[in-house]
């Protein structure tokens, strides 16, 4: 038999050790300082028909005009801010249903399907990258 002629650890044992070292290296690389933590803020939302507002949604800035709102159920929606003579408006950029602006005052209130969000306009219009 071939196995009886080979001395030392089995191939299965060697691959297990290599796999362990590789996963440790990936984990350490993920902890590096290469990527800064995204800027996030908690915002009011009412997710689903008849839901009450709660400050459970997380707003994450993607750039000067784009942001994501993460819901408490793990879902998220991507938006883009547009400013014109009438003020601030929000459009969906993830292919979801259109955005209905309920109030363009402060806080800005808008809905996509059955999800409603209240966001301080300063959170989405203030320049983040200069």
How would you explain this protein's 3D organization?
The chain has three helices and eight strands; from the N terminus they run ααββββββββα. Strands 5-4-3-2-1-8-7-6 form an eight-stranded antiparallel beta sheet. With 130 residues, it is of the alpha+beta class. The protein has helices spanning 2-5, 11-30, 121-125, and strands spanning 40-47, 54-61, 66-70, 76-84, 87-92, 99-103, 108-112, 115-119. The model is unreliable at 13-28 (pLDDT under 50).
What is the topological layout?
Layout lengths: L1 H4 L5 H20 L9 E8 L6 E8 L4 E5 L5 E9 L2 E6 L6 E5 L4 E5 L2 E5 L1 H5 L5
Antiparallel strand pairs: 1-2, 1-8, 2-3, 3-4, 4-5, 6-7, 7-8
Strand content: 35-45%
Any idea what the shape is?
Answer: globular
Q: List how many beta strands DSSP finds.
A: 8
Sheet with most strands: strand arrangement: 5-4-3-2-1-8-7-6
Query: Structural class from helices and strands?
Result: alpha+beta
Oligomer: single chain
Largest sheet: 8 strands, antiparallel
Helix content: 10-25%
Mean pLDDT: 78
Q: Which runs of at least 5 residues are low in confidence (pLDDT < 50)?
A: 13-28
């Amino acid at each position: 038999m071939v196995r009886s002629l080979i001395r030392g650890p089995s191939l299965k044992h060697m691959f297990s050790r290599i796999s362990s070292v590789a996963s440790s290296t990936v984990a350490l690389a993920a902890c590096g300082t290469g990527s800064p933590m995204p800027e996030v803020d908690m915002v009011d939302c009412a997710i689903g028909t008849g839901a009450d507002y709660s400050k459970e949604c997380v707003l994450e800035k993607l750039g000067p005009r784009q942001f994501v709102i993460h819901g408490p159920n793990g879902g998220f929606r991507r938006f883009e801010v547009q400013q014109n003579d009438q003020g601030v408006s929000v459009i969906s950029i993830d292919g979801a249903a259109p955005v209905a602006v309920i109030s363009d005052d402060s806080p800005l209130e808008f809905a996509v399907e059955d999800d409603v969000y209240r966001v301080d306009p300063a959170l989405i219009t203030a320049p983040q990258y200069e």
